[in-house]
């Protein structure tokens, strides 16, 4: 029997964990798998091990692992596969397949632009793309690729990229610089999947500025397109048309 296990990051904020579960649960209703569970990489429960155990206890002998992450940073590339490798040894009779995060997607960027309210501003904007940050250079390249997709939009004059951790420039420094140097409306786009401490940090920083032309967009899971893509990718994996195994080999 086949199961789907969705892995979210986890947060110290209960609100963030509840939001992640609600997001995944709304997708489950549209996915054709007899067993579906949600778990967290860290900071919350159930853990990945507990999620796998729940699937096995319900009779699963094949588990499709879906990382509910925006980009393939260290967590997706190293931490989750390491834990899945340990669990594969614990459950040698269960097959695991490991999917991709959302990644760089023109469709998602278009959906974000359509739902951002930028068109209603009436003039081209400076877009400040705020990413979590990573020590992984591939992840930073993906962020820059996403920025390039935004910059091609008619509503956007210019895109600046900044980070909340592990990379520079930092969000607070870049926002201060833009407030001092630009006359265009500044649209802040938190490229975060759910709320959490980082989103609260963004909101707190923005409140310090009495700047009528700063617009703070919602984080990206508020957009229906992310649910639709998660469902599409999960269904592809269930049909075994597209998946990535734990050792990282692409199979199509």
TrEMBL record:
Gene3D superfamilies: 3.40.50.1400. Keywords: Lyase, Metal-binding. Pfam families: CbiX. It comes from the Bacteria. Coiled coil: none annotated. InterPro entries: CbiX-like, Sirohydro_Cobaltochel/CbiX. This is Sirohydrochlorin chelatase. It comes from Bacillus bruguierae.
């Amino acid at each position: 029997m086949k199961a789907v296990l969705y892995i979210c990051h986890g947060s110290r904020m209960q609100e963030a964990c509840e939001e992640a579960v609600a997001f995944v649960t709304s997708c489950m209703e549209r996915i054709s798998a007899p067993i579906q569970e949600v778990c967290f990489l860290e900071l919350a429960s159930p853990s990945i091990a507990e999620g796998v155990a729940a699937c096995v206890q319900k009779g699963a002998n094949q588990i499709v692992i879906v990382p509910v992450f925006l980009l393939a940073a260290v967590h997706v590339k190293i931490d989750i596969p390491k834990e899945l490798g340990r669990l594969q040894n614990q459950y040698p009779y269960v097959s695991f397949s490991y999917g991709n995060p959302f990644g760089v997607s023109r469709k998602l960027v278009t959906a974000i632009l359509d739902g951002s309210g930028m068109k209603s501003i009436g003039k081209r904007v400076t877009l400040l793309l705020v990413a979590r940050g990573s020590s992984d250079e591939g992840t930073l390249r993906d962020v820059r690729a996403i920025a390039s997709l935004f910059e091609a939009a008619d509503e956007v004059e210019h895109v600046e990229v900044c980070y909340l951790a592990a990379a520079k420039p930092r969000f607070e420094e870049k926002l201060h610089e833009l407030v001092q140097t630009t006359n265009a409306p500044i649209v802040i786009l938190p490229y975060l999947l759910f709320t959490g401490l980082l989103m609260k940090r963004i909101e707190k920083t923005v409140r310090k500025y009495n700047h009528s032309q700063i617009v703070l967009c919602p984080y990206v899971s508020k957009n229906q397109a992310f649910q639709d893509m998660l469902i599409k990718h999960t269904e592809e994996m269930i049909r075994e048309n597209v998946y990535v195994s734990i050792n990282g080999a692409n199979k199509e």
